[in-house]
Design a protein that fits this description.
With 633 residues, this protein is α+β, with helices and mostly antiparallel strands. It has four domains: 233 residues, Heat Shock Protein 90; 135 residues, Ribosomal Protein S5, domain 2 (2-Layer Sandwich); 78 residues, Rossmann fold; 128 residues, Four Helix Bundle (Hemerythrin (Met), subunit A) (Up-down Bundle), CATH 1.20.120.790. A nine-stranded mixed β-sheet has the order 1-6-5-4-7-3-2-8-9. It has a six-stranded mixed β-sheet with strand order 16-15-18-17-20-19, with helices on both faces. A five-stranded mixed β-sheet has the order 10-11-14-12-13, with helices on both faces. The relative contact order is 0.07.
Length: 633
């Protein structure tokens, strides 16, 4: 029994997407054709893979292709594929009820300055809705491969909040999308225009994209027997897998056009590498570094990324980022085509195939080679690339111990020898400038460049002209838990542990600690359980105080961020280091009134906490205390 025709409302988020598409997107209208052809290509890819185990799915029409036609009289553009097709439930799930977080992130990104930018559509998996950029009504006719003709489905909507579903009889499998164009979209009823868009965006789709050679297809509902003649089709695209061609036959423009179609990106790729490996295991890789990150790279992208496409002898198998590249390289786009992976294994077994692991290792090596080449030969491009993907790359320090040194070589940090956050140095730059006898790479972490550059814990290092790396990205503290050394030099935080001192400095420090012992004891008494310890600092030359951390203690700014994110962070009492030569310490030492001395000592601790990025336990009390001191009370 066929399901009756019915009218349904779009899910709320889909309705919002459609409203934005219909009313707010004006640039790059032509994206609709790229997105719909891409969907059709995916449908053909899926059927080709499924038909390996179930050849009967190809019954009736064994050729996989995509047809693009137009009708000026009916004002329609039609995209038809002979791919896997959809069932009624598939249509509802894929078009009416997209419940993925990608839709919500698309809506968030399409606010403010981004509202009028249609290029974002492809990055969020909502490409079908781009049809409404140029159409005021869209009709979809589809039948799943292997289903009976009477199990076809017709979907129709004007994009204003509702859609209709109807069971129809369709003699052929696949999907037909009919766009009823808006009154001012005549340019897309021109065959030359449509052909140029196919060439521009979809030339290297690996299925023939056919277009009528002479006359357009009959309009929807028109009796085809009354048409003058069936159209003569011709292939409008290259219809070959770019990666299978010799590199000598592929131009840079070809590579860039293929990348844009593959990655749903309007920007050029920053770089690419194309390699064929022959031997006991043969495979081809074509890997790209994007120039700009997708919007979901850091917002859930670890779970939803779609990186490399895996083919076996040009047969699409899966979007296989999880199997072919590690998380920290999830920004890479490209294709892997293997000759000798078994086709009769399930997807789960394929994921654990040893040959696949070897291909993954080769892909990681190629990508790191490519980034190193970009850093060496095109520093300006590398700077832009690193700005976009540097924090993602840092994840590899933790995740990929085997390539840790190679990844660390690619990282860039601000430095006390630089001018501002934008001027960065590599670890090799730092090591090359180290004076004779220095065996430590010094760094400091903070929640911003100004906080790092202005930290009182740098004072002794500046006085001795020792360079310190300034690390202020949120991922840095986590990353440094796995980066303990580089090029044989230990990595050490200037705020943690005791500073290594030469004999003269040790003697001077011991003398200062002995002289200030009564002051230290008084401050301990005034602060009570607010501190774990108070000691004379070897770090300070100008500031009155700073916090010192144990070697494995979490930085205060990171602990604050984790607590704000709802994570459990062990409580610890800070160690306060003081500079007895500072006037504020001398005032505490001479203050006879314990109440006033307590205010001063507490402010001494609180200013050290603020400088370290730690939250004040009682901001209101801090304000009152500050006011009392300012008023001399």
């Amino acid at each position: 029994m066929t399901a009756p025709a019915e009218t349904r409302k779009f899910e709320a988020e889909v309705a919002q997407v459609l409203h934005l598409v219909t009313h707010s997107l004006y640039s790059h209208k032509e994206i609709f054709l790229r997105e719909l052809i891409s969907n059709a290509s995916d449908a053909c890819d899926k059927l080709r893979f499924e038909s390996i185990a179930n050849p009967e799915l190809l019954a009736g029409e064994s050729e996989l292709h995509i047809d693009v036609s137009w009708d000026k009289a009916a004002r329609t553009v039609t995209i038809r594929d002979t791919g896997i097709g959809m069932s009624r439930d598939d249509v509802v799930a894929n078009i009416g009820t997209i419940a993925s977080s990608g839709t919500r992130r698309f809506l968030e990104a399409m606010s403010g300055e981004q509202k009028a930018d249609a290029r974002l559509i492809g990055q969020f998996g909502v490409g079908f809705y781009s049809a409404f950029v140029v159409a005021d009504r869209v009709t979809v006719l589809t039948r799943h491969a292997g289903a009976a003709p009477e199990d076809g489905v017709k979907w129709d909507s004007d994009g204003r909040g509702e859609y209709s579903l109807e069971a129809v009889t369709l003699p052929e499998r696949g999907t037909t999308v009919i766009l009823h164009l808006k009154a001012d979209e005549d340019e897309f009823l021109d065959g030359w225009k449509l052909r140029s868009l196919v060439t521009k965006y979809s030339d290297h789709v690996a299925f023939p994209i056919r277009m009528p050679k002479d006359a357009p297809m009959p309009a929807e509902g028109e009796d085809e027997t009354k048409a003058d003649a069936a159209p003569e089709w011709e292939t409008a695209n290259d219809a070959s897998a770019l990666w299978t061609k010799p590199k000598s036959e592929i131009s840079d423009a070809d590579y860039q056009n293929f990348y844009k179609a593959l990655g749903h990106d309007f920007n050029d790729a920053a770089a690419w590498t194309h390699n064929r490996v022959e031997g006991s295991q043969s495979f081809t890789t074509l890997l790209y570094l994007p120039s700009q990150p997708p919007f979901d790279l850091m917002m859930g992208g670890r779970d939803e990324r779609k990186g490399l496409k895996l083919y076996i002898k040009r047969v699409f198998v899966m979007d296989a980022a999880e199997e072919l590249l590690p998380n920290y390289l999830r920004f890479v786009r490209g294709v892997v085509d293997a000759d000798d992976l078994p086709l009769n294994v399930s997807r789960e077994l394929l994921q654990h195939n040893r040959q696949l692991d070897r291909i993954k290792g080769a892909c990681v090596k190629r990508v790191l080679d490519l980034i190193e080449k970009l850093a060496r030969d095109e520093p300006e491009k590398f700077t832009a690339f690193y700005k976009a993907f540097g924090n993602t790359l840092k994840e590899g320090i933790v995740e990929d111990a085997g390539n840790r040194e190679r990844i660390a070589k690619l990282l860039r940090f601000a430095s006390t020898k630089g001018e501002g956050a934008s001027q960065t140095v590599s670890l090799d730059d730092y090591v090359g400038r180290m004076p004779v006898g220095q065996d430590t790479i010094w760094y400091i972490t903070a929640d911003g460049h100004k906080a790092a550059a202005g930290s009182p814990q740098l004072e002794a290092f500046r006085a001795k002209d020792i360079e310190v790396l300034l690390m202020f990205d949120r991922i840095d503290e986590w990353m440094l838990g796995s980066l303990h050394e580089y090029a044989g030099k230990s990595m050490k935080n200037v705020a943690k542990g005791e500073l290594p001192l030469d004999e003269a400095d040790k003697a001077k420090q011991a003398e200062a600690a002995t002289a200030a012992a009564p002051l230290v004891e008084r401050i301990k008494g005034l602060l009570g359980d607010r501190v774990g310890d108070v000691r004379v600092s070897a770090r300070l030359t100008d500031s009155p105080s700073c916090l010192a951390l144990a070697d494995y203690e979490m930085a205060p700014h990171l602990a604050r961020l984790l607590r704000e994110a709802g994570q459990d962070v062990p409580e610890s009492k800070p160690t306060l280091e003081i500079n007895p030569q500072h006037a504020l310490l001398q005032r505490i030492e001479s203050e006879a009134d314990d109440a006033k001395a307590t205010d001063l000592a507490t402010l001494l601790l609180e200013q050290a906490e603020i400088a370290a990025g730690a939250p004040l336990p009682d901001p209101a009390a801090f304000v009152q205390r500050m006011n009392r001191v300012l008023l001399g009370g």
